[in-house]
């Protein structure tokens, strides 16, 4: 019993500090929504420059995503998480003291390197640390921390908004970055990476800490057997037809949350609500409600993911997201020249439907499913390339949305997002496999068959 308690404590310690990096990811993603209201006024920013302030983080994230997986495969998952914490800290300090928009953009870019790296490496770290029967719920912890980070950013924004203290909004991210750095210093490397790189004794120590002495030897042998079989198989697993298909599926799974419009709401909800009838303080408070729902529905997802499964949840979530975007398109189209509080309330409800559907499904499942579908030998590097697509479309939406909002109106984009949701539904229905309650090795073996 004492061994089991110690094991559970070790697992929670590893997962809490690992997922804290995702709290920073969420905070830095969400904080700009309200901060931008004051930055654009103080620095007199055009719509295109507003897009660059938001999107500079996303350019950094694309680069961070592209290199983090390769570096994590070479140097280890844990070391790269430490580096992401440093990037978060430097970016937070730079953004807080930026005298002009140029340094603000550079600081956001540095922060983005950390955000992108965390989106790859933390997911791999947590999925490789998790026992098979708990992998879904424990890996979902990273998305819970992302949503908590977003919620905290909204609460900080709301608290500091009366003072227009956008520098404090951005700079406060330094505190959790220090906590992450210190916490991860005391956490182990993943056993799969250790075995793959010849550190079997250390891997056994980590497995003993995670699952207890009895199961540790068994899991170590499973990992070794799998890696030995991989070495014998001279054909690169990445080029087998089934795995090639799964890489394509993983790429689309990464893209769909962005091209269905998620971050148009995460980044610009206050701006949109003020254009359709809300006052400034009401829009900021509504933003907190969006963040709270995002956080709370992630708990629901954690309960469902290892019971209901990945595929049914994605299908249901896509329907809800599509309906939310359809409603937003209709409201913004009909209220374009006649904004009112009533229109704003309907728009807020539609945003809540969208975010609730996203948080319960795509928000929690996307990175878990991607890490499950990719082969161990290439997991870090390919996951990096796949998530470049995620951040690339995130960047495009962050950059062009304020321009579209100022020009054509938001309804055009919302109708496009709805159409993409329809495509996503049939893609998931036809091509996405179920992975619940299956070990990573079992999933990969089925793709080799």
Number of helices: 20
Number of domains: 1
Mean pLDDT across the residues is 86
* Strand segment tally: 0
GO molecular function, one term: transmembrane transporter activity
Main location: membrane
Subcellular location: Cell membrane
Transmembrane segments: 12-39, 51-73, 80-99, 105-126, 138-156, 168-186, 245-269, 275-301, 313-333, 345-370, 382-405, 411-432
What does this structure look like?
The protein has 449 residues and is mainly α. The protein has one domain (2-187, 233-448): MFS general substrate transporter like domains (Growth Hormone, Chain: A, Up-down Bundle). Helix content is 84%, strand content 0%. The chain has 20 helices and no strands. The chain has helices at 2-30, 32-42, 47-75, 77-97, 101-129, 135-160, 166-171, 174-185, 191-196, 200-211, 213-232, 241-259, 262-276, 280-304, 310-334, 341-360, 362-373, 379-406, 410-431, 440-448. The longest helix has 29 residues, at 2-30. The two termini are 40 Å apart. The mean pLDDT is 86. Residues 14-436 form the Major facilitator superfamily (MFS) profile domain. It is a multi-pass membrane protein. The chain crosses the membrane at residues 12-39, 51-73, 80-99, 105-126, 138-156, 168-186, 245-269, 275-301, 313-333, 345-370, 382-405, 411-432.
């Amino acid at each position: 019993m004492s061994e089991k308690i110690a094991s559970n404590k070790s697992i929670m310690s590893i997962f809490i500090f690992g997922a804290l990096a995702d709290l920073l990811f969420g905070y830095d993603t969400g904080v700009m929504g309200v901060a931008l209201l004051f930055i654009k006024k103080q620095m007199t920013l055009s719509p295109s420059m507003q897009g660059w302030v938001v999107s500079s983080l996303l350019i950094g994230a694309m680069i961070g995503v592209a290199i983090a997986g390769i570096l994590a495969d070479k140097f280890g998952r844990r070391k790269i998480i430490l580096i992401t914490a440093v990037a978060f800290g430097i970016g937070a300090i730079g953004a807080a003291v930026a005298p002009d928009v140029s340094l603000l953009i550079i600081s956001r870019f540095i922060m983005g390197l950390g955000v992108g790296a965390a989106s790859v490496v933390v997911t791999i770290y947590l999925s490789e640390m998790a026992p098979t029967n708990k992998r879904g719920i424990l890996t979902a912890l990273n998305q819970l921390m992302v949503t908590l980070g977003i919620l905290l950013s909204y609460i900080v924004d709301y608290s500091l908004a009366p003072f227009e203290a956008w520098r404090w909004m951005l700079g406060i991210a330094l505190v959790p970055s220090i906590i992450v750095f210190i916490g991860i210093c005391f956490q182990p490397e993943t056993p799969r990476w250790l075995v793959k790189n010849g550190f079997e004794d250390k891997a056994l120590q980590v497995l003993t800490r995670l699952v207890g002495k009895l199961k540790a030897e068994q899991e170590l042998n499973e990992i070794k057997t799998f890696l030995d079989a991989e070495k014998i198989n001279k054909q690169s697993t990445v080029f087998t037809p089934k795995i090639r298909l799964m890489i394509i599926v993983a790429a689309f799974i990464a893209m769909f949350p962005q091209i269905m419009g998620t971050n148009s709401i995460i980044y610009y909800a206050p701006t949109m609500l003020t254009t359709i009838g809300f006052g400034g303080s009401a829009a900021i408070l509504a933003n907190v409600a969006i963040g709270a729902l995002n956080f709370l529905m992630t708990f629901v997802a954690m309960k469902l993911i290892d019971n209901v499964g990945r595929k049914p949840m994605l299908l249901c979530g896509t329907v809800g997201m599509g309906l939310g975007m359809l409603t937003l398109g209709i409201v913004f189209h009909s209220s374009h020249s006649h904004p009112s509080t009533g229109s704003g309330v309907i728009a807020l409800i539609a945003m809540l439907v969208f975010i609730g559907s996203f948080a319960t499904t795509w928000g929690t499942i996307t990175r878990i499913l991607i890490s499950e579908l990719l082969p161990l030998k290439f997991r870090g590097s390919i996951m990096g390339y796949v998530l470049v697509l995620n951040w690339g479309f995130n960047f495009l939406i962050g950059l062009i949305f304020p321009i579209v909002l100022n020009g054509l109106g938001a309804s055009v984009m919302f109708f496009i997002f709805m159409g993409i949701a329809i495509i996503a539904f049939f893609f998931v229905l036809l091509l996405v496999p179920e992975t619940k309650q299956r070990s990573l090795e079992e999933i990969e073996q089925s793709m080799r068959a």
